[in-house]
Specification:
single chain; mainly beta; Metal Binding Protein, Guanine Nucleotide Exchange Factor, Chain A; three-stranded antiparallel sheet; about 35% strand; globular; binds zinc ion; lyase; Mss4-like_sf
Length: about 130
């Protein structure tokens, strides 16, 4: 069982199995909301302990498409935790339990600020990862 929560504790959830993958996004959107390290979770692995109603969703204007969920009280980024997709990314920062998986890729490296140095050997992509 993997536990997750926001900074103030109003939002708490669990995952009944580990995320499938971890990736780091360097796009300006993820950077602004402080959600660069993402883990992909299956929707049916997420259970709410409390605070689902305390999660707000910001839907950006075009050309940006991804909705951003966050705690209404403390602002902790929660990724796409309210998504109806089968699998979606949430912020790895919101997880309290440690994970065995490691970062698999860096995406939108072209938008990365120079002060952030990539210090692992994971695959790097200028934009979205190329899936082969
Ligand atoms: Zn909170
Ligand atoms: Zn991003």
């Amino acid at each position: 069982m993997i536990e997750g929560s926001c900074c103030c504790g109003a939002v708490q959830f669990t995952l009944d199995r580990p995320p499938s993958m971890m990736g780091t996004c360097h796009c300006s959107r993820c950077r602004k909301v402080g959600a660069n390290v993402l883990v992909f979770v299956a929707r049916d692995s997420v259970s709410w302990v409390q605070g689902r109603e305390n999660v707000a969703r910001y839907q950006p204007e075009a050309p940006y498409t991804y909705g951003r969920c966050f705690c209404r009280t403390c602002g902790t980024s929660l990724g796409e935790i309210l998504s109806e997709e089968e699998s979606f990314p949430i912020s790895a920062h919101a997880l309290d339990s440690d994970l065995e998986i490691r970062n698999r890729f860096h995406e939108f490296v072209a938008e990365k600020p120079s002060w952030y140095e990539i210090c692992d050997a994971a695959e790097q992509y200028d934009g979205h990862p190329v899936t082969t």
